[in-house]
């Protein structure tokens, strides 16, 4: 494009100046007519809440005349959403996002991001409706399985960054969601969340801010209200907090049908999804503030260009467009195989590394040598009823969650099948896969050890009714009656109360909903092919009363303020604390050097088998009336360490991480004094402490 031509056509809008948008995009926008501009900010492909054939879950049409490809969006939480029966088996059914996060491995999360990006692209999509990053406030939250922050803003920051980087390097735009204070599913369209500014800034915003810093293309505003106003029409939230304070240059899209009134574009919303509600009709968009439409379109096109979806006359797009809706994408969408042997292996590796060993009395695990194992309980042979799931969009099971995050697995490996396949010649398995106690006891008669399984699932739209696993009674009776060591394997969608049986069981392990490789991953852990190295990103409390319940009326006031999740339980006994996860080996920690806020910590494997450790840094602020409670400020995972081997981990804490939000200043401000640094194996297992004066 010629410069003179551009100057003639370019309206110098206020918004373009704020953005400092690049001139290619300015020129492109200048060439668009009003209807083309409007078409890019309002979704297509849905009529009266029904998805039309030939379209993805979210769609923006192409502007062929100007070489702008269509935007094709698909969920997210466990991979490429199986909205059509034909897609099942063509895509990987990954562990849930919380499971990926529970490996506490930023590189693994980035690998997953790349794999997700590749599968979306193979299916013709160029936008993924993830990551979901809300910090868990309510233990029963129906979508906690997809919220990769667990109970920690810091875990969320690190995981959000890795996810966004991995996905976007594959030419797929990421959407961080759901902004903001979308902490429960019950009454999600009407609940009005009230949190003070400091709580929002210190607890709930950091994972979102990290995504902004990583260059995430889009934000999805949530169904709920914040301070009395729906998120998608909340100017304080979208303009002041997000675009001005966090400096977000991408675009805000609504959650599906989360627009409730006309005029939200003037409160910071850039795109109405899925677009069949009429709120972004031409008439309504005609009533936009000056320059606002160009700002909205510029934001969308800038992000498309950034991830490589837009070419110029001189340079083709790094990720050329593969197809356009409607219809032209059908072969990719319905027929293309996006999964691969490499992705199947990665799904298994992630599921294996996501397992947290909560308890292992007398080293009952791993199981090796000549043994007879009884495998008892219905959850060890969990069903995967595809036709039932295809009929009910929010039906989950013990492999995948329900709702928009669901990826139906074609043939997930059950626990008992995984254990049989991994047993080898010397191990005999006797199974009884019902919850009948007598049959279980019969199966245990000649066994050396009994393995039983507990699970539950969750979905969006409503919260869990209980924190117990569905087999709580059976497992409790079984471990009570067992005269041989008992091992309990859990597949869960978030925090779980297992105190009825955790005391009596010899060993307990947790894997969040594990996707297609569930049973094989369990086999890797149970037989010691790999030592467990996951850590709980949430607390397993002693009882439901210790956890925050979903609000049943509005306003929903966040009275606990900063004391969210584990930080609200530091004075209480818990069953298994945040950050907890044992290994088959042992690790010693030693501070090797200290320079300001920079530490080098040596971790040595002092046990008898190979393993990996996640070292966590907890920081206690100087004593002051308004000091925040103890907080996770960093973590590092070692590589696989052989017995006797050690690794030097570097913790380089930025002074910015030790600040605290001042509502008066409207910003984070420095805190000075003595900070206690605890290097720990869990939030309640501190190994080395030091004091740092700032
Ligand atoms: C919500 O209300 C609190 C307390 O009044 C206020 O400090 C904060 O700025 C508000 N935030 C938003 C996004 O409205
Ligand atoms: C998908 O593949 C089938 C079988 O090869 C073929 O009949 C069908 O036309 C393909 N669908 C599309 C939309 O191309
Ligand atoms: C699967 O679910 C359907 C209900 O949609 C039911 O009729 C069928 O019996 C179930 N199949 C199995 C194997 O449980
Ligand atoms: C298990 O725990 C729940 C909730 O704490 C309790 O209501 C129930 O009675 C317990 N069941 C058994 C068998 O102890």
TrEMBL record:
SMART domains: Fn3_like (SM01217)
Domain Fibronectin type III-like: 613-683
Keyword annotations of the record: Glycosidase, Hydrolase, Secreted, Signal
Record carries keyword Cell division: no
Domain of life of the native organism: Eukaryota
GO CC annotations, alphabetized: extracellular region
Annotated catalysed reactions: Hydrolysis of terminal, non-reducing beta-D-glucosyl residues with release of beta-D-glucose
SUPFAM superfamilies for this protein: (Trans)glycosidases, Beta-D-glucan exohydrolase, C-terminal domain
Pfam families: Fn3-like (PF14310), Glyco_hydro_3 (PF00933), Glyco_hydro_3_C (PF01915)
Gene Ontology biological process: glucan catabolic process
GO molecular function: beta-glucosidase activity
Location(s) in or outside the cell: Secreted
Main subcellular location of this protein, as a coarse class: secreted
Family: Belongs to the glycosyl hydrolase 3 family.
Name of the protein this chain belongs to: Probable beta-glucosidase G
Organism (species): Triparma verrucosa
